[in-house]
Amino acid sequence: MIFTSITFFVFFAIVLVLMALVRSAKGRIWMLLAASYIFYGNWNSHYVLLIFMYGLWGWGLGLAMYHASTPGWKRFYFWLSVVLSLGTLTWFKYANFIGENVAKMLELRNWEQVDVVLPVGISFFTFHTMSYLIDLYRGKIGPSKDPAKFFLFVSFFPQLVAGPILRASSFLPQLDRTLRVTWPNFVSGAQLFIGGAIQKSLFADHLSIFVDQVYRTPEIYSAGTLWLAVAAYAMQIFCDFAGYSLMAIGTARILGFELPENFRMPYLARSVADFWHRWHISLSTWLRDYLYIPLGGNRYGPTRTQVNMFITMLLGGLWHGASWNFVLWGALHGVALGVHRGWSAWRERRGRQDHETSGPVAGAIGWAATLLFCCLAWIPFRSPSWETTGVFLRGLVPGGDGIVWLHTPTLGILLLAVIWHAAWQFMPRVVSRLPFRPDELSTWPAMLTIGYSILLLILLVPLNAQPFIYFQF
Amino acid sequence: MSWPVTFANCGSVRRQSLERRLGYFEQVLGRGGILGGESSQRRTVARSGWRVFLRVLLAALVVLGGGEVFVRVFVGSPSPHIYDPLIGYSYQPNGELFQAKEGSTHLRFNALGLNDRDMAPRAGRCRVLVIGDSYTAALQVPREQNFTSVAERIDPALDVINGGRDGLFLGDMHKVTDRLAPAIQPDLVVYVISERAVDTDIALPDFDVQVDPRNGMVVDAVMKVEQQETLKRIFGPVLNRSALATRLAAQFKPMVVEAIAQLGSWRGVLALSGSKPEAIRDSRARPDDVRILEFVFRRMRARSPAALLYVNGLRYAPHHRASVAPTSTEAEMVARRAAQHADLLLRDTGAYLIEANADSKQPPFGFDNALLPGGHLNSVGHEAVGRALVDLVHDSIRKLGRNCSAP
Q1: What is the pLDDT of residues A294-347, one digit of tens each?
Q2: Taking Cα atoms as reference points, which of A132, A189, A131 lies closest to residue A158?
Q3: β-strands B126-131, B188-194: how paired?
Q4: Which residues of B47-74 are buried (b: 16+ CB within 10 A; e: fewer)?
């Protein structure tokens, strides 16, 4: 059930009606839990059991850890939870990848692929559960005693399949207050949802028509077309994922929940480090808190810091999927972060400011270099294989005689994207007027903006709508 | 504040401002004076509610009006389709069409509802009626660039009439001949088919193939004609006048179909549905594709002298090289065997399209605002298919022993 389908609108309308009918706070939590399982079961009813099991061991082992009589037992329960979470994730997501590579290394010819369907969003709910258990182990939060609340934290439907990745410390307390659907939340949430739908359906889905075709056979296209595809994919994945996040945040806000911000105009970043403060923020902060810092962070000297950063990005790449292409993407970002860190340290030693804040020219150069790097790094991320990556990269060199295809809708969307980013950068006051407040709804700017947004959305959404890219992760 | 209560309070800010205004009036005119106390307060609130309602209504009209203009300028014109009990739908006679989905075209249909100029005197020319689906209808290119016009340009001794309609099924093509032949009196009817007709059309559940159980021969193969639904009857006039309504209908249709299918699956899960699932067709009882096509081709030939033009799909390689796509070749082989059995001339367009691709360095399919190299024939493709059509017509005329001379 994707957010932009009629099925979801019917489903969500029923949830809202039930929120009105069910008066007790506890009843509403149970209702949302049931709705979340139905939402997930609509994709694959068997895997509802899996998500239930995640809730069960997360809640059970959390309580066991909290009440453990000795530190040894506490450690045991903690590691058991880590093994269960990561083991399940590895089985479903990486079993074939590992098996295939081991078989290749050992030259085992009779190795056969495991017939397993990847549960949608498994990486996300695994990270939810793990963040709770790690925070609990570290003593940062208390245990969740109400199973319904914890099960809802693991399976809350707006963010279940593609994030933002929730932290128990911010979500569980929201369940302790009375859940309400209020008019201001409804107005603001609905507008966020519309904004997300525009990003996804109007921008990302139209771009995918061009991108998918070019990435299928990059060898036949001209360098100009391939460069256009590079830019188009960078915008597609941003609009797809940021659009989903915005719809998730909007849906949750209508129900009275606040989810963390996941994107902050990443293509305005002036360095790779800045990019990771703006791109998939809930993942980058998760990796920082639960991987980079436990590895030692920057506490053991510059070399170890670089290594920690590289490992973190490498695993961050692998988190996206079982493919060497994702590993390569993570490694590229790891190297780029290392270079940026080294460069910043060198400038600091010479008594200069960080280039991100050292004036418009240096800032513009930093922005352009970051944008170019990020766009090029998406090539292995998008390519189905190393071969395609190689063909694509070779094709970017001008001089070939491939098919020139300058897809008009793609050019139009990229132009709109430039205007949108420029507005964000240079006219923050205009941008900050959105979403409209409830008391502004009957003003002409609000009525026309919302009216035309909805109309354009309905009119121009491609008929062969694509599923969200991040569903596969 | 809980949900329903809060919804009732949706205009609380507006009401506060109204109350402030009322307070002002009460101060000026005196409580219970001219305004009449609480009842006047209620009247004023009601009046203000109406004002907001009217403003929202006006905004909705502005949005819809702007939407209509936007669609007419950038997307397409109102639907050119009218209900047709024979083949589901056809084009409005003398109707007009603008589309910017693939390429950008303004077209006018003739008095017969065909994408062609009005009928001209035969003047000794061979009259060829071309029937097919969207490749033939050619709504993506200007009329003078479509392959029927190209054929007329290459050989002025031909009067080629475009009888194409988008989405026309293989099993419906003979019905178009039945309808048009009395008015057009063609010397030859060319049926344009492609991989879709061979692979998809004849496998459709609505394509009803009847077999004589005694000898296994195909005795009938017809497409189930779409019934005019009440909704279409009601909204047809609106769709013919409003581009916005046409676009909205096209956008909503798949979503509604998906929602109905989803509802059906939920009903199945909840076991609420008393109806049993539709029985799966017995594939063993269905004759093979060649025999079905043979029947369809024989039926075409029985009506008037006929020939087949097969539009191949291409597979592209670097340096502007191309070859016929393997799936297209497979389907072509099936069609070719059936055509041989039915004693019908079939010409494929593969070589023409490959040559056009190499010469023009541009794929013969697709447009810069749609799929390239995919989708429908573009002007390069129509030029190539036009050449193939002329060669096919010459071969057929020779075979038929007819004589055509340029006017």
Answers
A1: 998 888 888 899 999 999 999 999 888 888 899 999 999 999 999 999 988 888
A2: A189
A3: parallel
A4: ebeeeeeeeeeebeeebeeebbebbbee
Question: Quick one: average pLDDT of B319-325?
Answer: 93
Q: Do B371 and A6 touch (CB under 8 A)?
A: no
Is the bond preceding residue A164 a cis peptide, omega within 30 degrees?
A: yes
Residue of B nearest to A404 (CA): B362
With CB atoms and an 8 Å threshold, state whether A458 touches B363: no
Measure the CA–CA gap between A240 and A4, rounded to whole angstroms.
Answer: 12
Q: What is the pLDDT of residues B239-262, one digit of tens each?
A: 889 999 999 888 887 777 776 776
Judge whether residue A355 has pLDDT over 70: no
The mean pLDDT value for B82-111 works out to 92
Read off the pLDDT of residues A238-253 as tens digits, 9 standing for 90 and up. 999 999 999 999 999 9
Residue B58 to residues B13, B52, B53, B265: CA-CA distances in angstroms?
22, 10, 9, 41
Q: In angstroms, rounded to a whole number, what is the distance separating the alpha carbons of residues A211 and B234?
A: 40
Report B:232-261 residues touching A (Cβ under 8 A). Answer: 244, 247-248, 250-252, 254-256, 258-259
Condensed to tens digits (0 to 9), the pLDDT of residues A373-385 reads 999 999 999 998 8
Residue of B13, B56, B371 lying closest to A438 (CB–CB): B13
**Is the ipTM of this structure higher than 0.90?**
no
Determine contact, residues A377/A329, Cβ cutoff 8 Å.
yes
What lies within 8 Å, CB to CB, of B183 at 6+ separation is B112, B119
Residue with tokens 């390239």: B372
- N residues, chain B: 407
pLDDT digits (tens, 9 = 90+) for A185-235: 999 999 999 999 999 989 999 999 999 999 999 999 999 999 999 999 999
Quote the pLDDT of residue B328: 94
Question: Residue A226: helix, strand or coil by DSSP?
Answer: helix
CA-based nearest residue to B237, from B83, B87, B88, B91: B83
The helix (run of H) or strand (run of E) holding residue B70 is helix B37-70
Question: Which positions in chain A have a beta carbon within 8 angstroms of at least one beta carbon in chain B?
Answer: 5-7, 10, 16, 19-20, 23, 45, 180-183, 209, 213, 217, 219-220, 400-403, 405-409, 438-439, 442, 444, 447-448, 451-452, 455-456, 458-461, 463
Q: Would you give the DSSP letter of residue B32?
A: T
What tokens were used for A156? 């809350």
| B319 interaction partners in chain A (CB closer than 8 Å) | 401-402
B16 inside 8 A of chain A by CB = no
More confident residue, A163 or B141: B141
- Beta-bridge partners for B193: B310
A320 is annotated as an active-site residue: yes
Run of H or E including B129: strand B126-131
Tokens 């969500």 — which residue? A12
What is residue B10's predicted lDDT score, i.e. its pLDDT?
Answer: 42
Strands B105-108 and B96-99 come out as: antiparallel
Q: Is the pLDDT of residue B14 over 80?
A: no
Question: Could you say which DSSP state residue A355 is in?
Answer: G
At residue B334 the predicted structure's pLDDT band, cuts being 50, 70 and 90, is: very high
- The phi, psi pair for A364, rounded to 5°, reads -65, -40
Three-state secondary structure call for residue B66:
helix
DSSP per-residue string spanning A403-462: B----HHHHHHHHHHHHHHHHHHH-HHHHTTPSPPGGGTTSHHHHHHHHHHHHHHHHHS-
Say which amino acid occupies A187: V
